[in-house]
Amino acid sequence: MPRFQAGFELAEALTVASQQLHETPTPHNTLRTAVRLAVHIMPGAEHVGISEIERGSKFRTLAWTDDVVRSAEARHGGREPHGHWDQLWHSPVARITDSEADEGWDVLSALGLRSALSLRLRADRRRLTVLTAYARKPGAFDEDATRIGRLFTTHVSIALESATVREQLTEAMHTRDLIGQATGILMERQDIDAAAAFESLVRASQRENVKLRDLAREIVSAHNST
């Protein structure tokens, strides 16, 4: 694993990683790229996963390097997040030094995983996004590894936010086009102007309890199939 003895080597590695992260087209691709890069950048990391945790102990693994991660995060049948993740609501970092020495980490020790380092990627009042690195060596993640991990996750967070905004803008543009097409179809069918057609579309959306874009998609699809 790289130890980055010289500062410029770490800077270069993070620059390359940042470029690769920002080239990803969707948030899902960003997460998949992040776990792959983390194994090479974070000292001591052998397996990496990214999970989303909701208040109320609901969680799901979003990206992973291998099946070891899926097994490691399937505590209690995959219904509850790891206890040390609770710290991440208040702190950006949580560590497991030795799963065999600490109580409650039978799942990790059974997989031969002795250390874990969890770093907060995103957080709000209801949800956390967490990157966790695992290692077979106890005490694998020291302060240097943690600092490098935090630098890396900062780049991941920025790239993830950028990819999310791009996806939202793309969806907004697609939705606008759909609504415009649906409005045009209603104008032609009902011989009304654009304002009346849009108002009719909104009323139908509210009456049928269907999102405006979904109703517009149905109208456009039905029109194109005739």
UniProtKB/TrEMBL annotation:
InterPro entries: ANTAR, CheY-like_superfamily, GAF, GAF-like_dom_sf, GAF_ANTAR, WH-like_DNA-bd_sf. Keywords: Kinase, Transcription, Transcription regulation, Transferase. Residues 159-220 form the ANTAR domain. Gene3D superfamilies: 3.30.450.40, Winged helix-like DNA-binding domain superfamily/Winged helix DNA-binding domain (1.10.10.10). It holds the Pfam family ANTAR. It comes from the Bacteria. GO terms for molecular function: kinase activity; RNA binding. This is GAF domain-containing protein.
